[in-house]
């Protein structure tokens, strides 16, 4: 009789690990003749699943979607806290706007062409919020993530936000962000974030219409290029050496489409006297900014001392220690980036007629006032 019962059970038993859920009662086990068994239908080969312990039979379930009702840092609530730790593509509901899939980073393993997602770091629990500086054109701003201090407990969202820190990107040098321009694409439901910003009054209908009107048809460039300059004088982070720096520039007249702003850029420590051999190109992240410079492309080239050119100044080395243990050091005040295509002793520069293809008149005036006007002083980093 027992053998017949066990044979019937094998024909109908279904492994719990394939079901995606765990029954509340009658957990299927087989440790003695007096235990209770469940019968479940299956499309797989009939087999018997034995639950050795509660922990062994625990099945990870999909994390429930969180709902974000505010992106205004001054109007956050405890209910706006979301958990992203360890997830590759977590999703959240933004008010009544819809669902948006979030993404931390992707990398391409050696020998492969398909990108692999990098999950959000452990402890990524906190608030999504809009970070925006005043007096900037429509389309400026970015969504950031404020990570809560795990050692601080409060029932005040404002206090928790103030004690937290912004989530950093994969390189650890800049805040993780979703730029405002990315919200105008259809990727991963990002438009749902934009609709919530509109409902909260964080962007106005006129600003929204302006960005859509200025937005070129080839929107794919905006999501592909990581560098978006809200102001031409803003410092930005990039990795050197680099073949092409493509940038999107916001301006009063509208949005400049993605354009090659610089090319074949590197930085080497230049020994003195310059007859000594050059160091290898620096390989790592830097903080840099565009400037205007009057003069030649090297310290020993006075032939063009009145010609104005666009240059790239390295303000800070973010990975100063080389693999061999040596340390790169910038001169005080930074140094100009150099050209890979030349002998490494010349600064990278762009003639003004070429620079104006990317830099519009209002942005060029900002650079002229900063670096060419009377009493011009370079802006502080950041």
Your description of this structure?
With 382 residues, the protein is α+β, with helices and mostly antiparallel strands. Helices cover 15% and strands 25% of the residues. The strands form five sheets. Strands 2, 7, 8, 9 and 10 form a five-stranded antiparallel sheet that branches. It starts with a helix and ends in an 11-residue tail after the last helix.
Outline:
The chain is of the alpha+beta class and 382 residues long.
What does the average pLDDT come to? 80
Series of secondary-structure elements, N-terminal to C-terminal? HEEEEEEEEHEEHHHEEEEEEEEEHH
How many structural units, i.e. domains?
3
Shape: globular
How do the strands and helices of this protein lay out in sequence?
Layout: H1 2-12, E1 66-68, E2 82-83, E3 91-94, E4 98-101, E5 105-107, E6 116-118, E7 125-131, E8 142-147, H2 157-163, E9 165-166, E10 178-179, H3 191-200, H4 205-214, H5 220-224, E11 227-229, E12 236-240, E13 242-251, E14 254-266, E15 284-294, E16 308-317, E17 335-336, E18 338-339, E19 349-351, H6 352-355, H7 361-371
Parallel strand pairs: 1-3, 11-13
Antiparallel strand pairs: 2-7, 3-4, 5-6, 7-8, 8-9, 8-10, 12-15, 13-14, 14-18, 15-16, 16-17, 16-19
């Amino acid at each position: 009789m027992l053998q017949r019962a066990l044979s019937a059970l094998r024909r109908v038993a279904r492994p719990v690990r394939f079901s995606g859920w765990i029954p509340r009662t009658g957990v299927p086990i087989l440790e003695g003749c007096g235990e209770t068994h469940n019968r479940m239908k299956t499309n797989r080969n009939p087999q018997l699943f034995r639950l050795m312990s509660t922990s062994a039979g625990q099945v990870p379930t999909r994390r429930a979607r969180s709902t974000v009702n505010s992106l205004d840092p001054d109007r956050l609530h405890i209910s706006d806290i979301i958990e992203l730790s360890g997830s590759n593509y977590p999703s959240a509901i933004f008010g009544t706007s819809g669902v948006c899939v979030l993404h931390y980073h992707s990398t391409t393993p050696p020998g492969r062409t398909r990108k692999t997602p990098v999950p959000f770091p452990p402890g990524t629990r906190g608030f999504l919020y809009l970070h925006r500086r005043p007096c900037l054109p429509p389309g400026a701003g970015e969504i950031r993530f404020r990570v809560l201090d795990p050692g601080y407990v409060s029932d005040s969202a404002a206090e928790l936000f103030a004690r937290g820190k912004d989530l950093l990107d994969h390189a650890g040098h800049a805040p993780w962000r979703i730029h405002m321009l990315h919200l105008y694409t259809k990727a991963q439901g990002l438009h749902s974030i934009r609709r919530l910003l509109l409902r909260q009054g964080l962007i106005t209908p006129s600003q929204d219409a302006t960005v859509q009107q200025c937005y070129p048809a080839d929107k794919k460039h905006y999501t592909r290029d990581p560098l978006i300059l809200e102001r031409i004088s803003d410092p930005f982070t990039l990795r050197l050496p680099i073949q092409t720096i493509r940038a999107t520039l916001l301006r009063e007249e509208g949005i400049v489409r993605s354009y090659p702003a610089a090319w074949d850029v590197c930085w080497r420590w230049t020994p003195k006297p310059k007859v000594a051999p050059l160091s290898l190109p620096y390989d790592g992240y830097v903080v840099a900014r565009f400037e205007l410079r009057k003069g030649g492309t090297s310290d020993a080239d006075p032939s063009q001392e009145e010609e104005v050119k666009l240059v790239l100044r390295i303000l800070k080395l973010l990975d100063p220690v080389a693999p061999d243990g040596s340390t790169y050091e910038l001169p005080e005040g930074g140094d100009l980036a150099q050209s890979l295509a030349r002998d490494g002793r010349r600064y990278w520069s762009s003639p003004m007629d070429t620079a104006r293809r990317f830099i519009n008149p209002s942005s060029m005036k900002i650079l002229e006032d900063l670096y060419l006007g009377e009493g011009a002083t370079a802006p502080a980093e950041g």
